[in-house]
Design goal:
The chain is an alpha+beta fold. It is built from 23 helices and 26 strands. The strands form 8 sheets. It has a 5-stranded antiparallel sheet with strand order 13-14-19-15-16. Bound molecules: zinc ion.
Length: 618
């Protein structure tokens, strides 16, 4: 006699219909038919639950019926009925065909919830029959027979082999079982399936969450986008919520749906505090409003229906605040009882980006030959021989360069002229003269706007008309160029490394990058920041933090390095960041540094990204 199939296992795959619901369906002329034993025998039920619509042909073969009949069964299951008038939408950015099938093992409530949620977020997710896990845990060595477990084992092996739509592969995971226990489960399944070779790998549950989950949207309504521009002040007021179109009557006290917005080129991170900040009010909770993988989403029609059954008037019309990049980090930090502020270095980087017209323009300059040449020429602090002005003047620790000196650094005449013109227009270089006071003999640089035919010495305050005795070389005074102080400060504080790292992430991002400069994070009232994070950005919706260095190591000593990695891990966990980046402009990271980092960041929900010279400067 067939063993009973676990009702929870079946219900999770097909949905359930209780007697009351059956009665109501009957009252509107819909008959319910029971599948499973004794109607068609459990084997088909098991196979349908495992491969479902992915493989109706082999189910039809085993059931001795037509493929169309199997598709009809599956489409009439209660779970399918609950998707009435909905379509499954998959992001084009998600390579679903490369994704392995997933088998979740374990009989705890956590295992079940993980399986159930995951099976709604992506296809080909299976819960290993609870009786199989149970027999592994109890050490049972029962000889296999042709029963539900056998059909499960063969159907799972079939799923793992892939098909014309999917690559082969199976990932096994569990919240309650150890890797050794998972190995036993795999061995047991192979044994039950009479030595079917089950080629599977073991993965942590966190790593299996899809970046772009499957979404069920109202058919023929989702593909009619409406466009709303985000006003300057960042608040979309009283957003007009779309209402369902495919139902003759929508009863606002019974019908529930979620409205979801996506903001073009501004992929916000999924974070519970952000949804509430953007759309929350006195009557909402973090369950009603949230940022999904697509963008801000909210529960409809409203959590308080006052009266009436007109859906158009009952539906919520939220005002949606779109956060500035820094606000995203401030809100998220606050939810972790932290505060954050842009550091000095971050301020220099922001201002430099603004001068160059954005991150991509600034970083392409920093990577260019002329950019590197100009940067090192202005940062050069080496003393000149008396009377030698080929490297300009070093006055008060700042270098001033004339055309000849810049040409010597860049090498090419045409490129030098073009670069100087461009940087003057951007306010990165300023023109002026280097003049020597005839009284106190002090040499200074004077911006062209600050002088007329005469100049005033800043030390002795003597006004004097400048002549060939005041400029020190040539028949005419030459222009000497000053590098903007903010850009100078940025370069001397190595702002180029985090900027190049951010630009690398921007170039790789499918969608876009939201970035702020270096942030200092403070814990409570502590005046000293507990960490300064060089990289703070959102890459395609993934909250990312990280360190950027010129050297090939994080710190001088081993102990300091370990402390840095630990603080970053701590910050990532508190913010809910899912990616940690370590970037260096050195050729590669020191092997021991990598080893230390990996030792602390055991594979888990935080992805580690290593960047080196080739990625940053290439
Ligand atoms: Zn003077």
């Amino acid at each position: 006699m067939d063993q009973e199939l676990d009702p929870l296992w079946c219900g999770a795959a097909f949905g359930r219909v209780n007697a009351k619901f059956q009665e109501r369906l009957k009252s509107i002329g819909i008959e319910t038919v029971e599948l499973g034993p004794p109607y068609d025998g459990a084997p088909n039920t098991v196979r349908m639950a495992v491969s479902g619509l992915d493989d109706p042909h082999s189910i039809a073969y085993w059931a001795g019926t037509s493929t169309q009949e199997v598709v009809k069964w599956l489409n009439a299951a209660p779970w399918a009925l609950s998707k009435l008038a909905l379509g499954g939408y998959r992001s084009t950015a998600y390579p679903y065909w490369q994704m392995p099938a997933i088998a979740v093992a374990g009989n705890t409530i956590e295992d079940f919830c993980f399986y159930f949620a995951l099976s709604r977020m992506r296809e080909r997710v299976v819960w290993i029959l609870p009786s199989i896990t149970e027999s592994v845990l109890s050490g049972s060595k029962d000889e296999p027979k042709i029963d539900n477990e056998f059909h499960f084992a063969t159907a799972l092996a079939n799923l793992a082999r892939g098909d014309s739509q999917h690559h082969a592969g199976l990932a096994m995971t569990s919240l309650s079982l150890s890797d050794e226990q998972l190995e036993d489960v795999r061995d047991r399944i192979e044994h039950i399936g009479f030595r079917e070779n089950l080629d599977c790998r073991f993965e942590s549950p966190g790593s299996l969450l899809p970046s772009e989950p499957l979404r069920y949207l109202e058919a023929n309504n989702a593909s009619r986008p409406r466009f709303v521009s985000v006003p300057e002040e960042g608040i979309i007021s009283l957003f007009e919520t779309p209402v369902p179109k495919n139902f003759n009557r929508v009863n606002p006290s019974k019908h529930r749906w979620i409205s979801e917005l996506s903001i073009s080129q501004y992929h916000l991170p999924r974070h519970s505090s952000l949804g509430w900040w953007m759309m929350g009010s006195g009557v909402t909770t973090t369950k009603d409003v949230r940022v999904s993988s697509a963008g801000p989403s909210y529960f409809c029609p409203h959590n308080f229906i006052m009266s009436g059954d007109d859906v158009e008037t009952s539906v919520i019309r939220p005002s949606i605040k779109v956060p500035q990049p820094l606000e995203i980090f401030e809100v998220i930090a606050q939810s972790a009882s932290l505060t954050c502020a842009v550091s000095d270095k971050g301020f220099y980087a922001d201002e430099s980006c603004r001068k160059f017209g954005g991150l991509s323009h600034l970083t392409s300059f920093l990577r260019s030959h002329e950019g590197r040449a100009i940067g090192s020429a202005f940062l050069d602090k080496s003393p000149s021989l008396k009377g030698d002005h080929s490297k300009g003047f070093l006055l008060d620790d700042r270098r001033y360069l004339d055309y000849q000196a810049l040409k010597a650094a860049i090498g090419d005449l045409e490129l030098t002229t073009k670069t100087i013109d461009d940087l003057l227009r951007r306010g990165v270089l300023y023109r002026g003269f280097v003049l020597k006071c005839q009284y106190c003999k002090r040499t200074d640089w004077f911006a062209v706007g600050s002088i007329t035919d005469s100049f005033t010495c800043p030390r002795c305050h003597s006004e004097q008309i400048y002549t060939s005795t005041h400029w020190m070389n040539g028949e005419h005074p030459s222009w000497f160029y000053q590098l903007d102080e903010i850009v100078y400060q940025g370069l001397s504080h190595d702002m180029d490394v985090p900027l190049l790292a951010l630009d690398r992430l921007r170039r790789e991002a499918n969608d876009n990058l939201i970035a702020v400069s270096e942030l200092r994070y403070f814990d409570g009232v502590n005046k000293k920041p507990f960490i300064e994070s060089d990289l703070n950005c959102v890459v395609d919706g993934i909250l990312t933090i990280g360190e950027a260095k010129k050297a090939d190591r994080l710190a001088k000593t081993e102990k300091e390095e370990l402390a840095i990695v630990t603080s970053y891990l701590d910050l990532a966990n508190r913010l809910g960041a899912r990616q940690l980046v370590f970037a260096t402009t050195a050729e590669k990271w020191r092997a021991k540094t990598l080893e230390n980092t990996l030792q602390i960041l055991v594979p888990g929900s935080i992805r580690l990204r290593i960047l080196t010279h080739a990625e940053l400067c290439g």
